[in-house]
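Supplementary Note 3. Input sequence used for the single-chain structure prediction.
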Amino acid sequence: MTTTVARPMSVKLDQDTRGRMDRLAQSRRRTTHWLMREAIQQYIEREEKLEAYRQDGIAAWNTYQATGLHVTEEEADAWLAKLEAGQDAEPPACHV
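The predicted structure, written as discrete structure tokens, is reproduced below.
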């Protein structure tokens, strides 16, 4: 069994931000510590998803550069229009 050791970390906040956090924590009946942990966790999750999306884009670009395979804007729009209309349509085939 692995144990997770929590180590303290300090964050310097201006007085206005600290006051806003204190008021929010009080209204939510949470501690400022809980709010900071929650905010950091949500930020990291959002940024990790954004980075994965960015990496997918880079990989797609590299694949296109290597193979030249693509679909045109018209092909993609026609496919998306079918999907919007509720039709079960296969995506267009990639071509050079």
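The chain has three helices and no strands. The longest helix spans residues 32-67.
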